Amino acid sequence: MIIDTIENFGKYAVLNPLFSKVEEFLKNNDLASHEQGKVMIEGKDLFANFTIAKGKAKEVAKIESHDVMIDIQIPISCPETMGYTPRENLAECEYNAEKDITFYPGLAEKYVTINPGEFVIFFPQDGHAPCISDEAEIVKVIFKIKA
To answer: pTM for this one?
Structure first.
């Protein structure tokens, strides 16, 4: 897991060949005024999903992980708290290959709050519980990048 400001995103481009395309998208698009929906950037290997997520309590937010894709999550409308547990500390649970997701029971080990103007990167080894907020809705963008 990595947390930083959007201005520093370029420092992480060396971690994945597609991260430079995310950096380019961030420089050339106004996230706050972008319409909702999926934006295909590099086929199925890289896309952005602009969405309005429902805010939920820690106790309701499910820990998830992905085998194939990396998540870069950016809250736009308000701060968003996200749970984090290293995947090695999570029990074996059923993987849904079609949706590239595994859900885990229980609460996360740690929680961090990401503010608008910041991002978090979750790699396949990172269990994460997103969308924790007192706000009813969280406008956000999630970049999905092939690991």
So the answer is: 0.96
